[in-house]
# Entry
Amino acid sequence: MISFAFSEEQQLLRRSIREFLEKELRPVSAETDRDARFPAETIAKMGGAGYLGTIVPEKYGGAGFGKVEYCILMEEIGRVDASVATILGAHSSLGSSALLYYGNEQQKQLYLRQAAAGEKIISFNLSEPEAGSDAKSIKTTAVRDGSCFRISGSKMWATNGREAGIFIVFARTGGRGAEGITAFIVERGAKGLTFGREEDKMGIRGSSTMQLFYDDVVVDGGNVLGGVGNGFKVAMTSLDVGRLSLSAASLGMAGRAIELAISHARRRVQFGRPIGELQAIQFKLADMGMRSRALHYLVYATASRADGLGPNPAEWKRSDREEMTRDCAIAKCSASETASFCVDESLQIHGGIGFTKSSEIERHYRDARIYEIYEGTNEIQRLLIGRDMIGRGWQ
Ligand SMILES: Cc1cc2nc3c(=O)[nH]c(=O)nc-3n(C[C@H](O)[C@H](O)[C@H](O)COP(=O)(O)OP(=O)(O)OC[C@H]3O[C@@H](n4cnc5c(N)ncnc54)[C@H](O)[C@@H]3O)c2cc1C
# Structure
């Protein structure tokens, strides 16, 4: 038998997270979106409640969640505010994962602890002005100088760039392609690290997205993460976790869009009866429900399978890693498109009011769009999925 039910503990966890977010996050989300302001107080409270260190083992000050529990957290955050899902995605799914899976004991005791406690936020710096989808072509360099490295180059799209205390930066230590890339841990305040333009975005406006300049930044060799030349592996392993957690956040957004649509359809009266009694509206709800339900099983089956393989993806068998990379891409791609579909249909059900700032769905509609772009566009996910299917077949 395959069990598709959450345990008592997992249901309790979901209830307590939802209670926390309804009290601490929902009341500020519209305002932080309007003002393009990082929700610092809420993030601090989330840190206090342990939500910034959930995937980190207890020995480094975290909660030691498995991927199923982490997806529950991300789904609940996604129901409320995609900006915070983005902040946590960069900090935890990408940043903390990289430290957890590839850091040495000293790095974990220092940086992972700080991240888990919420004392320092992490920014994950892979993308560059000329290297987005083609991440292997980054130009930022790290040149060895005695026991140190000197990093020079510019980075784009750094989520949490304005607030971060720790930067995981990817730079070229060797020749071309993936083999020449190394990951480094850089601390805020490092001489030569400066901040450029902050992007003025259409959505997830509560999260900062920055241009960063590394101008001869000196980093101790002890801050190489995962070994020289292993940076691309560090990035891709973290991105698998990122894509899974992103699919959970998208699932949360889809669910919220459905809730809002049902509530509006029950209340709004036209032609003498609630529009929810019209079959045209019920068909829209049915389509949203079908996609969202299928996604629920996809997300949690993928998370559960990942948990079954062991806590550290860097230690999984190659064939399992390949399968999970494909399945995380499938989850990310399906989830982001389901979220986009559901917010679009929900807005349509809202009619004119859905097109105004007075409705919550307007914010989700703008926010949803990013899920199809970052952590690898959906075209790149399809490329990964299709390439794996041709290479290994379909089982
Ligand atoms: C709000 C936001 C936050 C972000 N946060 C981070 C972050 O914290 N850290 C970080 O490192 N990056 C971050 N990114 C960068 C993000 O991951 C990239 O934007 C994304 O990978 C796409 O790269 P690009 O924007 O350069 O688009 P491009 O790579 O220029 O792609 C343009 C279009 O071409 C398509 N395309 C490109 N190559 C192919 C191909 N081979 N086959 C088919 N289609 C292709 C793409 O799918 C896309 O539709 C963020 C981006 C945004 C917008």
